[in-house]
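Quick one, tokens below:
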């Protein structure tokens, strides 16, 4: 009932234990708090909170329009609904190194287990699109150093994402990844790698957990968990998969209603009322109400002492 009873500190400690090279822990992207519950129920290791999804959910493109306040609020709403550790996409950190420091503290306050900060310029782009720009290494090192310095819980995971592979190639990406680990990054997110061999090369070059982004319609093929584990990857995200699936389903139902004048043909593909209630733990609220409100009202002698009530 209500929110997770697992504290953010416990979730962060769990995340640290989970993220071992070669385990390819799976973190599907939640598009709302309820979907985070579903992810937990299905036995996944953690929840990813995508910047693209947060922006798209507001009807906006993923080009750095969302603010720290919006991201921290929504990510916090999602994180508190699951017992799993949640990692959020903090884009470029929302400003200069001082802003990055504040971003980390706000995300800690919101109950996140970690976040990633990337080396793109603002306005940023989806990492799998052409025309991205990255800041120089020195600027990115400062972002990561500021992030690492600002955290108050040593287990809050600071992940450095580099988009440089698509701009300057794999060798530059690997050198950058190493420098970012030296600057304090606990983990590396090499964006838009070409194949499994490239993941393997990054995993071999750094001794921190490496993330693989299995986003659809992007530059990387959709490798299996086993393939990525064999390459040494610690964590796999499916950032926009649930939003794409849910919106795909919504579009099909809308078409059916418009064409047939009824949703009848689609009902068997919907989450049933019972299943929806199960996910929001309806029964627990009933039990709570019963325990609190089904009591006998004692006889009160209002006449003698409280005559003016
Ligand atoms: C991981 C990502 O940063 C996100 O915001 O989810 C995106 C995903 C996408 O646009 O498919 C990305 O830049 O890869
Ligand atoms: Mg993003």
């Amino acid at each position: 009932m209500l929110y997770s009873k697992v504290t953010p500190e416990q979730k962060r400690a769990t995340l640290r234990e989970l993220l071992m090279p070669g385990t390819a822990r799976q973190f599907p992207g939640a598009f709302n708090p309820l979907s985070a519950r579903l992810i937990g129920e299905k036995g996944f290791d953690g929840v990813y909170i995508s910047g693209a999804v947060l922006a798209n959910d507001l009807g906006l493109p993923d080009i750095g329009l969302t603010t720290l306040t919006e991201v921290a609020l929504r990510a916090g709403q999602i994180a508190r609904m699951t017992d799993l550790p949640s990692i959020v996409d903090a884009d470029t950190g929302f400003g200069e190194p001082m802003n990055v420091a504040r971003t980390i503290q706000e995300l800690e306050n919101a109950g996140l287990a970690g976040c990633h900060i990337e080396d793109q310029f603002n306005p940023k782009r989806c990492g799998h699109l052409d025309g991205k720009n990255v800041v120089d290494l020195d600027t990115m090192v400062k972002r990561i150093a500021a992030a690492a310095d600002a955290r108050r819980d040593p287990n809050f995971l600071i992940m450095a994402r580099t988009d440089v592979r698509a701009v300057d190639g794999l060798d530059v990406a690997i050198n950058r990844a190493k420098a970012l680990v030296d600057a304090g990054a606990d983990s590396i997110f090499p964006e838009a790698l070409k194949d499994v061999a490239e993941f393997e090369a990054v995993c071999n070059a750094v001794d921190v957990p490496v993330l693989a982004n299995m986003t659809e319609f992007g530059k990387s093929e959709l490798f299996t968990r086993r393939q990525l584990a064999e390459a040494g990857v610690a964590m796999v995200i499916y950032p926009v998969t649930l939003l794409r699936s849910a919106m795909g389903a919504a579009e099909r139902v809308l078409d059916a209603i418009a064409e047939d004048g009824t949703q009848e043909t689609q009902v068997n593909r919907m989450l049933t009322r019972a299943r929806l209630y199960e996910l929001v733990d309806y029964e627990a609220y009933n039990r709570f109400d019963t325990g609190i409100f089904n009591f006998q009202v004692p006889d009160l002698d209002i006449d003698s002492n409280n005559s003016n009530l």
